[in-house]
Design goal:
about 450 residues, alpha/beta, Rossmann fold, 6-stranded parallel β-sheet, 19 helices
């Protein structure tokens, strides 16, 4: 099958979190199933030296061709849209005011090349409206439905006037909503866990208010659980950590912990938790805020990596307790050190479509503490509920007290039951979190979509 992925991110070229890693993982897993995968993405400002120039399509001045480990990458050269800092905005967590225009132009280019492929796989709101113009059948995966791209209706509709119903599909309270348009125009919508598939059909807070449209689709949203690239993220071969280690010998984690403490200046006498991702309301920071001082008094330490619109909360914690909380911008090298050197990984999300940070953490021997929602409920097995198969700690109630009690429970096990903690580490590290099962499900889905076309 000749597949086109249309994306805003792909690791290692451009990534702001889990999406870029997910694209790379799915693409390589499908290639291992002998499928032909091409990825179309913007030629961002920092990718100017990558690829061989070819003539452009649609608004693109050119399309640069690059080969990356068996995957063909097409970089759309549109300086008007992408010759600027950042993926979505000039700073992490920000967005350009003309997001609707720049991504609309990108979707026009994607549609212009779509006829060369058997199926086009779109990812998130930025690429979703490609479905209105694509010459090939389309699958739209919602990695996070909380983010939609909106803009002025008439101007946005003009970008997609090739579809006779573009105005109706895009219209959202007098504006254009790219996520809505893609959901309604795609031949199939998927998301990254079964739990999240249910949530976006039921909960307007999780689906940007689009739950009724999701619930009304002719073909129900399919949840396919995310994985990680286990070959690329392997503590036994990872050059980003001081000393390699594996499930049968965890001594190297001590060196990673010492390096992490040295980098952050935190007090190493406590229990070291990591958080990696966007610092936004989705991530449950509001639960931690009322109880963090109490937890710090009990030995809680936190390394938070990433930025977002709730940076002020995390920065406030670090200002009050600089020996207990450290906050810095995302880098993959630092993220790997957090997974390898942190005692545990904290992910108290209000909602979590799939969850990758918890998988990376378990892969590197850091049992997670999570709220059991979306993909987290599909991957994290709580010690109290299922002691024989547990790999971490979870809670369901979205309250500060539930978070505090679960964090304290985890710290107690680490301090008082080292054998139990080691069993949790081994369970997480020896589970196959790879992409191959997901790729097989995607391939089956593609075949069903093509059979309906």
């Amino acid at each position: 099958m000749n597949l086109l992925f249309v994306v805003a991110e792909m690791a290692p070229f451009a990534t702001s979190g889990g999406l870029g890693d997910a694209i790379t993982g799915i693409a390589h897993a499908l290639a291992r199933l002998e499928q032909s995968v091409t990825v179309l993405m913007p030629r961002y400002q920092w990718l100017g030296d990558l690829g061989e120039a070819r003539p452009g399509e649609g608004p693109a001045r050119g399309i640069y061709h690059h080969e990356e480990a068996g995957i063909r990458v097409l970089l759309v050269d549109d300086p008007e849209s992408f010759d600027r800092p950042g993926i979505y905005g000039p700073e992490p967590g920000s967005a350009y005011e003309d997001e609707w225009r720049r991504w609309g132009r990108f979707c026009q280019t994607a549609a212009a090349v779509s006829g060369q492929f058997d199926l086009v796989h779109l990812h998130d709101a930025q690429t979703a409206p490609t479905a209105l113009l694509s010459s090939a059948p389309t699958v739209l995966t919602l990695h996070n439905a909380a983010y939609s791209v909106q803009g002025p209706l008439d101007e946005a509709v003009a970008l997609f006037e090739g579809h006779p119903d573009a105005a109706d599909l895009l219209e959202w309270y007098g504006a254009a909503n790219y996520l809505k348009g893609g959901i309604l125009a795609a031949d199939q919508v998927t998301t990254v866990s079964r739990g999240y598939a249910r949530q976006i059909a039921e909960d307007p807070a999780v689906s940007s208010g689009l739950n009724e449209f999701v619930a009304g689709l002719d073909h129900a949203v399919v949840g396919i659980l995310n994985g990680i690239e286990i070959r690329r993220f392997d503590p036994e071969t990872d050059d980003a950590i001081p000393v390699p280690f594996g499930p049968d010998d965890l001594t190297g984690r001590s060196a990673a912990r010492q390096e992490l403490l040295a980098r952050t200046g935190l007090d190493g006498s406590g229990v070291l938790f990591g958080m990696v991702g966007r610092m936004t309301g989705q991530k449950g920071l509001e639960l931690l805020d009322p109880v963090i001082d109490q937890l710090i008094g009990s030995g809680f330490r936190l390394v938070a990596v990433g930025n977002g619109d709730q940076d002020y909360l995390v920065d406030g914690w670090a200002a009050r307790a600089p020996g207990a909380v450290w906050h810095g911008p995302y880098s993959e090298e630092l993220a790997r050190l957090v997974w390898a050197g942190g005692d545990s990984f904290l992910m108290p999300s209000r909602f979590e479509p799939g969850g990758l940070g918890n998988l990376y953490a378990m892969r590197y021997g850091a049992p997670p503490v999570v709220r059991l929602t979306g993909g987290l409920a599909s991957t994290v097995i709580d010690l109290t509920d299922h002691p024989a198969s547990a790999n971490g700690f979870g809670f369901e109630d979205y309250t500060p007290e539930a978070l505090r009690e679960t964090v304290e429970r985890a710290m107690g096990v680490l301090r008082d039951q080292p054998d139990v903690w080691a069993a949790l580490q081994r369970a997480g590290m020896t589970t196959d979190w790879g992409w191959d099962p997901a790729a097989r499900r995607y391939l089956d889905l593609y075949e069903r979509v093509l059979s309906r076309s």
